[in-house]
């Protein structure tokens, strides 16, 4: 079984989504971003937050592929941005 960072490296998404998320990740702030995406309350640790974000992103990607009217590009970018930010926190903690 792969670790969470390995799963992120294997994600394949459209270039435009990734590019927008990378730009957003430069200004990533954990508290406001995670509160908006995961709900208010105690923030989970970076690993747990990243797992939840992966689940949310997977659902969004399924909606994107299905051409679902409820799909939101801006929310997808926001989730990918948070994933990149949390991954950066995990990588920095490992070193």
Written description of the protein model:
The chain is an all-alpha fold and 95 residues long. The protein has one domain. It is built from five helices and no strands. The longest helix is centred in the C-terminal third of the chain and has 22 residues, at 73-94. It is globular and about 40 Å long.
Condensed summary:
This protein is mostly helical. Helices cover 73% and strands 0% of the residues. It is built from five helices and no strands.
What would the keywords be for this entry?
73% helix; 95 residues; mainly alpha
Describe the protein's topology.
Layout: H1 4-10, H2 15-25, H3 30-38, H4 46-65, H5 73-94
Provide the residue-averaged pLDDT.
87
Question: Which word captures the global form?
Answer: globular
Main sheet summary: none
Helix content: over 70%
Distance from first to last alpha carbon: 22 Å
Please state the CA-atom Rg, rounded to the nearest Å.
13 Å
Low-confidence stretches: none
What is the overall number of helices?
Answer: 5
Number of domains: 1
Query: What is the H/E string?
Result: HHHHH
Beta content comes to: under 5%
Structural class: mainly alpha
Instruction: List how many beta strands DSSP finds.
Output: 0
